[in-house]
Amino acid sequence: MSRKIHIGISTCPNDTFTFHGLMSRSVDWRGLEFEVELIDIQQLNDRLFEGDFDAAKTSFHAALLLADETVVLPSGSALGFGVGPLLLSSEPGQTPTDNKQLTLCPGKHTTASLLNSLFYPETTRVEHVVFSQIMPMLQRKAADFGVCIHEGRFTWEQQGLGLVEDLGTRWESETNCPLPLGGIVARRSLGDELIATVQHVIRDSLEFALADRDAALPTMRKYAQEFDDDVLMKHVDLYVNEWTTDLGSTGNNALQQLSERARSIGLVGESESSIEVFRR
């Protein structure tokens, strides 16, 4: 009987692109049986904390807090230059100045929220909502600011919103590192052999998609907030890169920078384990 692996990924196009080969069984599952669940990134974070998944995409903020229990897989991560979340305003020209204003973030343990805490500490009130609600709420003037992720990077101007700051660009200028947004983690309790097999299947799935990008479009369309193929492929171009295939030394360094900065503002305790990338 094959070992079942319960894996969670987000509905954003870079994940559905990466996992298209796995979900369509176009790559060898190497003797495993995968049960794949697609949900919002903050739901993935929450359920990882609850112990629900064997492996899952998670925000690197959450991965820092789960370092005792999980390792980061070398493949499947989203990090790079020019990929950061945007701090948007409901009206062009607004800037965060006081706690009477409201900023929406896409979840307590998202890397986007961590960046907002790093760069705008205690500037405004913060509430957490599902990422897909942020831009509509800004359009309705139900909030003053919002930290926008995913496809909204490409559509905010069309929706009449203002850009306060590209938080990723600020990260890059201060660290000289690509911004680590999220990655695939696996539970240490699976053991090295099983973790290595899961890693191989995910890398095979990514390489399958890279070899025939258009073949993944039906899967991407099924789950995306935006259905325009050009927008979906722009998303892939932005978030799927050499570090998605393998984090390497550059990815490791970026994760250490994130860990140090999270510790500097008390979001990660001094006694917490350091984040670890699985190698075998």
Task: List strands and helices in order, with pairings.
Layout: E1 3-9, H1 13-23, E2 32-38, H2 41-49, E3 55-59, H3 60-65, E4 70-72, E5 78-80, E6 86-89, E7 102-105, H4 111-119, E8 125-128, H5 131-139, E9 145-148, E10 162-166, H6 167-175, E11 179-187, H7 192-211, H8 217-223, H9 229-239, H10 242-245, H11 248-264
Parallel strand pairs: 1-2, 1-3, 7-8, 7-9
Antiparallel strand pairs: 3-11, 4-11, 5-11, 6-9, 6-10
- Put simply, the count of helices is 11
Biggest pleated sheet: 6 strands, mixed
**For the record, what is the CATH homologous superfamily label of the largest domain?**
Periplasmic binding protein-like II
Strand content: 15-25%
Share of helix, binned:
40-55%
- What structural category arises from helix and sheet content? alpha/beta
Could you state the oligomeric state of the chains shown?
single chain
Distance between the termini: 25 Å
Q: Helices and strands, in N-to-C order?
A: EHEHEHEEEEHEHEEHEHHHHH
Number of domains: 2
Net shape: globular
Number of strands: 11
Q: Quickly name the level 1 CATH class of the largest domain.
A: Alpha Beta
CATH topology of the largest domain: D-Maltodextrin-Binding Protein, domain 2
Q: What is the C-alpha radius of gyration, as a whole number of Å?
A: 18 Å
CATH architect. name of the largest domain: 3-Layer(aba) Sandwich
Q: Which residue ranges are poorly predicted, with pLDDT under 50 across at least 5 consecutive positions?
A: none
